[in-house]
Amino acid sequence: MSEKKTFYITTPIYYPSDKLHIGHAYSTVATDTMARYKRLQGYDVMFLTGTDEHGQKIEDRAKAAGVSPKEYVDHIVEGPQGVKDLWKLMNISNDRFIRTTDDYHVAAIQKIFKAMYDKGDIYKGKYVGKYCKPCESFWTESQLVDGKCPDCGREVQDAEEEAYFFRLSKYADRIQDLLENTDFLEPRSRVNEMVNNFIKPGLEDLCVSRTSFKWGVPVDFDPGHVVYVWIDALFNYTTALGFMNDKYHDFDKFWPADVHFVGKEIVRFHSIIWPAMLMSMGLPLPKKVFGHGWLLLDGGKMSKSKGNVVDPYLLSQRYGVDALRYFLLREFPFGTDGNFSNEALIGRINTDLANDLGNLVSRTTAMVGKYFGKNLPACADADPAQDDELMGLARGLRAAYEEQMEHYAFQNALVEVFKLIGRANKYIDENKPWVLAKDEAQKPRLARVLYNLLECVRISAVLLTPFMPDTCAKIFEQIGADEGLRSWESAGTWGLLPVDAPVQKGAGLFPRIDAAKELEELAALEQAAKAAAAPAQEEPKEPEYITIDDFNKVHFVTAKVLACEAVKKSKKLLRFTLDCGEGIPRQILSGIHEYYEPEELVGKTVVACTNLAPRKMMGLESNGMLISAVKEEPDGTEKLHLIMLDDKVPAGYGLC
Length: 656
Ligand code: MSP
Description:
- Helix 13 crosses helix 14 (about 340-370), helix 14 crosses helix 21 (about 515-535) and helix 15 (about 390-405) packs parallel to helix 18.
- The chain has about 650 residues and is α/β, with parallel strands linked by helices.
- About 40% of the residues are buried.
- The mean pLDDT is about 90.
- The chain is built from 22 helices and 25 strands.
- Helix content is about 40%, strand content about 15%.
- Among the domains are: about 345-490, Isoleucyl-tRNA Synthetase, Domain 1 (Orthogonal Bundle), CATH 1.10.730.10; about 550-645, CATH 2.40.50.140.
- Strand 23 and strand 24 form a beta hairpin.
- The protein binds 5'-O-[(L-methionyl)-sulphamoyl]adenosine.
- 5'-O-[(L-methionyl)-sulphamoyl]adenosine (MSP) binds near residues 23, 262 and 302.
């Protein structure tokens, strides 16, 4: 007997730093659907997901919460409504779950780090550059955009420390070749982005250890250093199979991975750093990395900080998990961004699921019951020519669907299935079973019509199973299709359902939603959630006093704006030439262009802090900071007013 073919698929492992939102569920639902599809086809599937639990961000959050980092991540991963709970809710069929704090993984990462060090691919040096804390990413000055993190646009910090480096530069040519000349990375548009933005400007060696915090895998041969969280995270795909550990033993069976599904912002890690490290370790490369788009909310990124997290618990409780799974994969092409809205979700449920699929199943099963009792009689082939189009569509469906699924085109695969569902609904209207039923002589034709509908329902349900497993199981029950008739093979053949299969109309699959009423209720819930999330009346806190000496350390002086202009290629920065009463003008850069035009500031009297360490932004040196009054509004936007004094005040006066 020949061995089953294997298929290894992964999701990114999640940061357990916050509660997950529906955007997080997107990657995992897509991966789950692909894993179920491959299982349906008969593959021996390994579907891995997990959590990425180290790094400074987690250490900081735990500290703020007053618990240890391990307690912090344990709660988010294992606790109520945590990561594992969410995957259970979303009916995720992962075969394995890795936590990067698992002992076997930690020990394996230490061995992997040492192996690359022994090979000479990791070496000790000094890190001088910028660090983005939320992204846990290091950047060089030239990689910053407007002086900010190129991934998330947030402020970066100066960083300098002894550190280990990975010789990423050594692999630049091989990575470029991999990206340009193979189909390793998809969609293709992401290849240009990687090559033009990261490889062509010159791949620099990557800083792969940190000493400024502790919550990471310790470098065992150099105490004080912890392994850079991305190295620790990426190798999860191999340690979870048993690479460099004895916990599991199926590395040889499943590696290389068939596909890593990842969100677009982490394509760089998966398509440049990951293959380079695998090359260093002498391991085969994954067959594919697919960078999917983001689920947006009101055109922007979903995030807790924006206060607009869309709660998968709430949504699945109201509409059912299958409706949510269907919506995520039907509404947007997998490779591009898509905007989530309650209107779109309700629209899809009403149109595709309640009207098209739900009605087809309920009308068909109801008519079998009404006209024939529990099952159909042996039906004569009254006039098969009339049914050719419908049968042809059903016969060709599996191939059309497979073609799309093999390219991770979930949306198109669903469109194919719904072509048959739509055609079958039309077939009911064309054949008018209720008219046929009135004429005894037409009973064989009526039976044939209903049989054809049952077969369309069966074939559609087999192919929809990876997307909506629970719903399809209910459909199979209603049409009397046993296990053998739910298989991939059976979806490729017309006419397998026994004529006397026991048909039983069940409860409606997707109740129609009153959209206007529902949207009103959702809006009220959102308001209530916002109010609940608003900070409670804070306990009066003991103020953190500073001494007069501390205060005197900061030099505030009055300054006259001699000149002001926008900095080229920067949306925010203005370049000020100031008279601070020092005899020579002082240059300060300030990110306030969205609030002021340069011309309106010339001649004004402002306040500058002049003993802040000089800092380069967009290649220009800033020698201080202008002082503004800033307020964050409840919607997250900021209001800013530059502090301006009466112009009678001369330049160079200290403030005290
Ligand atoms: N820990 C890293 C991955 C390490 S893999 C070796 C990470 N974690 S994450 O929790 O921030 O993100 C996990 C996945 O969720 C990423 O693929 C990310 O793109 C995806 N999403 C998070 N928000 C999303 C949307 N709004 N829309 C679609 N996917 C999004 O990155």
